[in-house]
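Team,

Forwarding the record for the chain on the shared tracking sheet. I've put the sequence and predicted structure together so nobody has to dig through attachments.
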Amino acid sequence: MSLIENIKWHDLPIKNISLIEDRIRLEVLQFNDESQEYDGYVLELFEFESVDLSINGQLASRTLDEMDVSHFDYTLDDDLLSGCIQILPGNGYWEIKIQNSKWSLCEST
């Protein structure tokens, strides 16, 4: 099983999210039952065919640490990722829909 399949893409706290030129970077935290600590992972999406951003609701600096990935449905085809990341930013709802993207996923340090 690959690393992306090992992550439970539901109710994951977001440590960092960045939209930079041709790249989306999402750093999430997943609770590790064995160590009783959070493990960090960085998902980067780049060189995508298309991306659709839907950002609704107000964002206040005091609620930035409350953001989480509520769900991530994806498919992999020839090592390209397509899918929809649903994010709850504290007050509102975001969606990032991506089509045919190169991607990388690693543990954060």
